[in-house]
Specification:
The chain has about 550 residues and is α/β, with parallel strands linked by helices. The chain has a 9-stranded mixed sheet, sandwiched between helices. A two-stranded antiparallel ribbon has the order 2-3. Strands 10-11 form a two-stranded antiparallel sheet. The radius of gyration is 25 Å and the shape is globular. The termini are far apart. It binds 2-acetamido-2-deoxy-beta-D-glucopyranose (6 copies) and calcium ion (CA). One 2-acetamido-2-deoxy-beta-D-glucopyranose binds next to strand 5. Keywords: Calcium, Carbohydrate metabolism, Disulfide bond, Hydrolase, Metal-binding, Polysaccharide degradation, Serine esterase, Signal, Xylan degradation. It catalyses: feruloyl-polysaccharide + H2O = ferulate + polysaccharide.
Length: about 550
């Protein structure tokens, strides 16, 4: 308030001065510039140092400082979508760890009275600038952190539990605690509702907050979450022993072989939802039989027209649930439909970067650990270690429900990075743990299965649901999953479906819409009763 009074006094002074000598006029951008930098220079919060505070007009392209927008994060510049006050801070979370933390605050007269925290991805280390631009563009007061270290590598975890603790939960939670105070101080009034939006590791972070900090958010949007995190690392790594290296008889090279496999999967499963359209609506129903691709006697399959017995065996293993030393499920099978992208990511070439980092820098603190030696004993070690319960597997969400929270979980059914089977696995775990059927869970927790969506963005189907700016298809809550969450929290209207859009050309939305499809919430599945008109959303029905 004191700051506001000061600003008003200043404004009055300049207005008076200008009316006297007709020379000095303080424009609204000058006012905002002054307000933002003055706010930054007087902000005082525990463990927090302000590095910069700058008002930026809509359209500004931020040149990201190398330290924050490290090349490994993939972001060098970031255009913003409305006027903001950008505050960059350093926050000490412990003597051995710290955050880079940013708040992007819309102008006071444009702010929607909502607070929103973004999350991260992979092992990063990377403040998600595109999500900051998207949510502040939608008029949220947005915050985000670098999750306790810089860059996409996990090497900062080596011999430093404090950095792992930031990564597991503390960075997001600290950012929320500080971010809410900053929001209140900047606008002179508190936010009305608080939201979270993240995908992948960001999805896991959302669930972690729901599980452990149930009052941080009124609404949480968690996509393609990296749940059961240590076991996910093992799952990613276990493709190495399954496929081996180029030259091994189990190895399936990138290119024609995987196109053949994808084609066969569609042949066996695409029509199960009522229409052959290149999209599998319910991957659970797909029990792919790779033996259909077995080479006839005398053929070696080198041209990619068939698979050898060893290759068929490897493919069958990849599409089989992965069990551990005690017979417990470590992670469910790779999901059918995702195989082309998966082959480009990690089937092709054995080791999966992220799992190597986790075993080297967290499980063993051994920079020489060799991913080719991976066995289920390593998976067991990762399960037992589970630092700061990063597994994020608590199935009791009742504190969040009792606090009035709403949770939207979405899952891409072409996800090559984290099999979507784990989403049903977790949802069913919640159902059993809380003793609630899906009708009852619907009151606060809904899981939407987005057919034809890859990991968080992109894919072959109607994957544009407004989860990120790249996958934007309108602001109305039916087409925008973040606005659907807002409507659920604030108007108590829960989404029954989310309409996804498929564009004629995904990199050029201006070329128009190919089709829209309403995605169902689990355990409903989408079925087409009018296959000749499959592009019409009304040709589909959510059935149990
Ligand atoms: C991340 O980079 C920023 C900017 O260069 C730096 O201030 C900060 O200390 C770095 N954080 C860590 C954990 O190294
Ligand atoms: C920001 O600028 C773009 C491009 O001029 C415009 O389309 C958009 O509406 C502006 N955003 C706001 C919130 O004014
Ligand atoms: C400041 O950081 C220290 C750890 O370095 C922590 O113990 C303390 O709780 C923090 N203070 C606040 C107000 O968060
Ligand atoms: C932040 O923490 C990292 C360790 O993760 C350390 O190397 C760096 O010096 C710290 N930065 C500051 C400014 O304290
Ligand atoms: C395998 O992965 C390594 C490291 O990511 C990369 O340098 C190499 O080019 C890849 N090889 C193939 C055949 O894709
Ligand atoms: C889609 O649009 C992009 C960008 O305009 C263009 O480069 C690409 O060729 C288009 N793709 C197709 C299949 O038309
Ligand atoms: Ca289909």
């Amino acid at each position: 308030m004191a700051l506001l009074k000061l600003c008003i006094a200043l404004l009055t002074f300049f207005t008076l001065a200008s009316s006297m000598d007709h020379q000095i006029v303080l424009s609204s951008s000058q006012f905002n510039t002054y307000k933002c930098s003055h706010f930054g220079s007087t902000l005082s919060l525990p463990n927090t140092t302000v590095k910069s505070a700058q008002w930026l007009p809509n359209g500004t392209v931020i040149q990201l400082e190398q330290g924050y927008g490290l090349a490994s994060c993939g972001w060098v510049t970031q255009p913003i979508k409305r006027d903001i006050c950008r505050i960059v801070m350093h926050v000490d979370t412990s003597p051995r760890s710290n955050l880079t933390f940013e708040a992007w605050l819309p102008n006071e007269n444009e702010w929607n009275d909502r607070f929103l925290s973004t999350g991260n991805g992979g092992n990063s280390g990377c403040l998600r600038y595109p999500d900051m631009a998207y949510s502040s563009g939608l008029a949220f007061a947005a915050v985000g952190t670098n999750n306790g270290h810089n860059g996409s590598s996990g090497i900062a975890f080596l011999n430093n539990d404090d950095v792992i603790e930031d990564f597991a939960y503390r960075a997001v939670h600290t950012g929320v605690v500080i971010g809410k105070q900053i929001t209140q101080k900047y606008y002179g009034r508190a936010h009305k509702k608080s939201y979270y939006a993240g995908c992948s590791t960001g999805g896991r972070q959302g669930f972690k907050m729901v599980q452990d900090f149930p009052t941080d958010f009124d609404g949480v949007l968690a996509g393609c979450p990296a749940l059961n995190f240590p076991s996910l690392q093992s799952w990613s790594g276990h493709f190495q022993p399954i496929f081996g290296n180029p030259g091994d008889d189990t190895y399936v090279p990138q290119g024609p072989h995987w196109e053949l496999i994808h084609h066969e999967i569609l042949k066996q499963c695409d029509g199960l939802d009522g229409v052959v359209d290149g999209i599998i609506e319910d991957t659970r129903l797909c029990r792919f039989r790779p033996e259909a691709l077995q080479c006839s006697p005398g053929l070696d399959g080198k041209n990619g027209a068939c698979l050898t017995g060893s290759q068929v065996g490897a493919v069958r293993n990849a599409f089989t649930d992965f069990y551990g030393v005690d017979g417990n499920l470590i992670y469910p099978r790779m999901q059918p439909g995702s195989e082309i992208m998966a082959s480009e990511q990690f089937y092709a070439n054995g080791t999966f970067l992220y799992s190597t980092d986790w075993f080297r820098y967290v499980v063993y603190d051994d920079t020489e650990w060799d991913p080719e030696t991976f066995t289920i004993d390593d998976a067991q070690n990762a399960i037992i270690q589970d630092p700061f319960k990063i597994s994020t597997w608590n199935g009791d969400l009742s504190p969040f429900e009792e606090a009035g929270g709403k949770l939207i979980h979405y899952s891409g059914l072409m996800d090559a990075t984290i099999t979507s089977d784990k989403d049903f696995w977790y949802y069913d775990h919640v159902s059993r743990t809380m003793g609630r059927d899906s009708h009852s869970l619907d009151k606060f927790y809904r899981l939407f299965r987005i057919s034809g969506m890859s990991h968080c963005v992109g894919g072959d189907g109607a994957h544009n649901i407004g989860q990120r700016f790249s996958d934007f298809a309108g602001l109305d809550p039916e087409h925008n999953i973040l606005e659907a969450l807002v409507q659920w929290v604030e108007d108590r209207r829960a989404p029954d479906t989310i309409t996804g859009t498929r564009y004629v050309n995904q990199s050029n939305h201006a070329l128009g819409v190919d089709y829209e499809r309403r995605h169902c919430r689990y355990p409903y599945r989408n079925f087409c009763h009018d296959p000749l008109n499959y592009k019409d959303p009304d040709s589909w029905k959510c059935i149990i």
